[in-house]
Amino acid sequence: MVDDTWSSALHRLWQAASRAEEVSALADDVYAPLLATPGVHLVVGTRWEDPQILRYMRALRAGSDSPVITATARSVPEAAVREPGDEPVVTRIPVAGLDDAGWPEAELLRRTPEATFVVCTFRLDHRGWASLGVGVDASADVAAVEGRLAQAVDVIVACHTGIIQRGREARRGADDALLAEASLQMDSSLDVEETLRRVARIAVPAVADGALVHLLRSEGPEFVSATHVAVRQQRALEEIGRENLWLAALLARRSEDEDTVFLSGPELDGSPFADTAEATEATEATEADGDGDGARPVAAEADRHSTVISISTLRARGRVVGSITFVYQRPEARLPGSAFLRSLATRAALSIDNALLYELRRHAVLSLQEHLLPSQLPVTDQWDLSASYEVGDPMLDVGGDFYDAVPRPDGSIALLIGDVCGRGAEAAALTGLARHTLRTLLEQGTDPGTALSRLNRALRQERASRFLTAVVATLAPRPTARRCSPRAARGTPRPWCSAATARSPKCSPAGSSSASWTTSRTRATRNASAPTTPWCSSPTGSPNHGRRAAPSSRASCRCGSPPCAVSTPPTSRRA
């Protein structure tokens, strides 16, 4: 015959188990139905950590509405023999035969010495086990009691497994969200040190209580950043990362193939993270004296949990770029897994490596660009020359803009400005060829127009796929006035001159235009604050066509238009 009372109670227990977030929440739905079983006068359960650490004990006696709970953890070495295997074990033992040394439940059961203790021990997870037992008298159906105990234990184990599984899924979702956010944050900067600092800030406190990041240099690990949830420990952690010999030696011993390693307990002896009573007392004494500078070991901050550290190698594209050390002062259950730390380290390493590669290429581009321009301008008694070159965009490619000032045999100075279409290695090669060809010819006294023609012929012979716009002007001091004249220009259609109130008449064809700058001093500079209302522009096929170049001085064109500023072909650079 089916016991409807127990069946209903078991059904309610399964329902409660599906909603429970802690196994202890099932206590009322387990203890009361078992206590209602005929012949049962006491229900008692225990929870153990490791083989012999009693975490708590809960008991409910017949006729009582309130359970007796003992929540003080204590060691019971003799209880280690009771630890079950993978399957639950049901034991039947007379109360009189219980040994207090291994059975903490005996004290509660001895009120009925002639009773029998029926107990089921079972494993919850790899960290601990539990027991659920009842005290029965002679009137009880012991077989039925054992069956109910086994059913209740099945529900408890299933509930605990479900809680763990849901916790893992929730944690996996949180980890994925954190990794995605970390990738966005770290990829938003191409500065190496800023990227490293972001790694530390993202990880604390979501992943750990503290973090130290080191960058691998040729001379060894270099400390870059540290952060900690406790403000007073921030400086201490920075000093550890920067100066501590124990940590420096540990990082130096790490091989490239090592995975994330966790260190705790005796492994931290002699380190600034060691959990020692002396460290804690010293820190407390220092703080009591009002001289706390935060320089004591971080382990002194942990009041309840032992310090654990993990070290992950930052490896990207087959090379090690650094390491990240996490400091934990939290329960073991809240420590991140090795797979998560490995994924975070991989993302951080890629971001750091990208920043390093960007910095290397940027340095190479700037170095090459500098070598395509004159290292210095000529110094003469008649002219004071200066130049400014500004990159118009952040692209990591060498531009095709160039300038130079060349002293000529007759005492004049030839100024040349040019722009090669496009960017990259081909543009850089053509830029170098053009500048050095023009410089060599002009230094030899070649007429600017002839020099440009010979350069054009050389480019055609080389079958250059890019076009070049260039202008050459000569500066020659005269007794009556200081004047400079553009002598030749190549690479553009005929220029257009315009003024603020005049229509734009056509000037002389490209290559034969002539204009003069009237100046009161023998100083030629490019000044962005000069008048900009009248201007002269030569249209080109470059993407920068249409920009307005800042004129350097006033000018008068042969076409008869009002005085205007003569600009070089518009480019994204300024010389």
UniProtKB/TrEMBL annotation:
Where is this chain compositionally biased, Low complexity type?
A: 503-534, 549-564
Lineage: superkingdom: Bacteria
Checking Pfam families in the record gives: SpoIIE (PF07228)
Residue stretches making up the PPM-type phosphatase domain? 409-477
- Keywords assigned: Hydrolase
GO function terms (MF aspect): phosphatase activity
Q: Where is this region: Disordered?
A: 279-301, 479-575
List the InterPro entries hit by this protein, alphabetically.
Bact_Sigma-Reg, GAF-like_dom_sf, PPM-type-like_dom_sf, PPM-type_phosphatase-like_dom
Q: PANTHER family, from UniProt?
A: STAGE II SPORULATION PROTEIN E, STAGE II SPORULATION PROTEIN E-RELATED
Name under which the protein is recorded: PPM-type phosphatase domain-containing protein
